[in-house]
Amino acid sequence: MNLVLVLFILLICIFIAFQDFKYRAVTWCFFPLLAFFVFTFGYVEGIALIKLILFFVVNLIVVFFQLFFLTIYFSIKNKKIFMPINKIIGLGDILFLLILCFAFSPINFILFVIIALFLTLLIILIIRRGEIDNQYKIPMAGYLSVFYSIVLIVFYYLSGINLYKDHFTEIILNTI
Q1: Apex CA 162: angle with CA 159 and CA 168, to 5°?
Q2: pLDDT tens sequence across 29-47
Q3: pTM of the full predicted structure?
């Protein structure tokens, strides 16, 4: 059952990445499907429903703080109230982040988001040779789906690490 869920998750992530890289837009129907499979995966992994919901709420607060500070930053920069959705960050990017709220424990979620956003920025800077104009649209949902797929394969299937538990993260942080 877990393997089937992971295959569906990976397949949807491939579709999201393809569409976002090619068209800078993603068909909306992929998001509820992905949310269903990611949530079901967590539940089948043996994570209690109340714990999954708690993880989601804590991770959701993290996403809202990111969006809040993004709004504050661009409002100050533009000297007026500025809503960044579909101007700075696409709705698909936000939906993908919301889906990822079901995919990790809070510490792993924060770690994943920081690393994924940093790698996305690094890749874009390399591809664009350091030149990014204001009109360039970064396919963030595409990159996040690729990184989530890699994490799911490498950490879950190849090493057996549970993404809903922080043991691995604590070990890594204690060795630094």
Answers
A1: 75
A2: 999 999 999 999 999 988 9
A3: 0.89
